[in-house]
Write a structure and sequence with these properties.
Blueprint: E1 9-11, E2 17-19, E3 33-38, E4 44-48, E5 53-58, E6 61-67, E7 84-89, E8 95-99, E9 104-108, E10 114-118, E11 128-131, E12 137-141, E13 146-152, E14 155-160, E15 173-174, E16 183-188, E17 194-198, E18 203-207, E19 212-215, E20 228-232, E21 238-243, E22 248-251
Antiparallel strand pairs: 1-2, 3-4, 4-5, 5-6, 7-8, 8-9, 9-10, 11-12, 12-13, 13-14, 15-19, 16-17, 17-18, 18-19, 20-21, 21-22
């Protein structure tokens, strides 16, 4: 995603950027593409944080899945979810969206029908969401310094991070026993391991399926100022991190 010119590009095998949305239909301008994910058929699901839209792009046609309801004067109706950011699909290709405005997570179908899967206020200022291979929803909060598993729309359990004890990243222990500084982004690999981008330590932490946490990056390979981290599970598992302020994309 290229936020400063409202474009979305893919990198070919020579790392040349090619626009995939350079011919919008009128009225479908994306002012602030915040996150993107891909379905089985190659369709794209896109959030626009500033305009409060969720889009679906397939075979050159862009459609609106959701837009925050407004009054006739254009102002947003009080209490409606705003600022959609992270977007994910589960195995049934239901669409999960994090709304930073109220901290809720909502599930949509392609017709825009929604269900609240995490109520507002349950987690303080969530920063990212991910869905494991067996479909549970996980939520990171860089303010809390924790990663949660969502049990239902009002109940979560801590999976990684600990506010008590020594404030250092400890490896080889249960993830719920290790301190996380600023878990800004999360994702899963094909083996259902949870990856956590921690901006406070400049590290990528990995949680195994039995709950043990270790650091993927070492002191000589720190990665700071991560905006989003996503994993490519095709062939060799590869991590990609975006860095908004530095205008760059890293491969790990």
């Amino acid at each position: 995603m290229i936020g400063n010119n409202q474009d979305i590009v893919y990198l070919n095998k020579n790392s040349n950027p090619i626009s995939v949305v350079n011919n919008y239909s009128e009225g479908y301008n994306i002012e602030y593409p915040s996150d993107i994910c891909t379905g089985r058929l190659g369709e794209l699901y896109i959030t626009d944080k500033e305009r409060n839209f969720v889009f679906w792009l397939y075979e050159g046609v862009i459609s609106t899945i959701y837009s925050t309801p407004r009054y006739e004067d254009g102002s947003i109706i009080s209490g409606e979810p705003t600022s959609p950011t992270s977007i994910r699909l589960n195995s049934s290709e239901d669409i999960f969206v994090l709304f930073e405005g109220d901290g809720s997570v909502r599930k949509f179908d392609r017709k825009g029908q929604q269900t609240i899967v995490l109520q507002p206020g349950i987690i303080e200022r969530p920063s990212d969401i991910a869905i494991s291979n067996d479909d549970p929803l996980f939520v990171a909060s860089k303010i809390d310094g924790l990663v949660y598993k969502v049990k239902n729309d009002t109940e979560v359990v801590i999976i990684a991070g600990n506010k008590q004890g020594i404030k250092s990243a400890i490896d080889g222990v249960l993830a719920s026993e290790s301190y996380l500084g600023e878990p800004v982004s999360i994702d899963f690999d094909i083996s259902n391991r949870l990856y956590i981008a921690d901006n406070a330590f400049g590290s990528i932490r990995v949680v195994t399926t039995d709950g043990i946490i270790n650091s993927l990056t070492d002191s000589d390979n720190k990665v700071f100022n991560i905006s989003k981290m996503r994993i490519n599970n095709h062939g060799q598992t590869t991590l990609y991190t975006t860095h908004l302020l530095e205008h760059k994309l890293n491969r790990i």
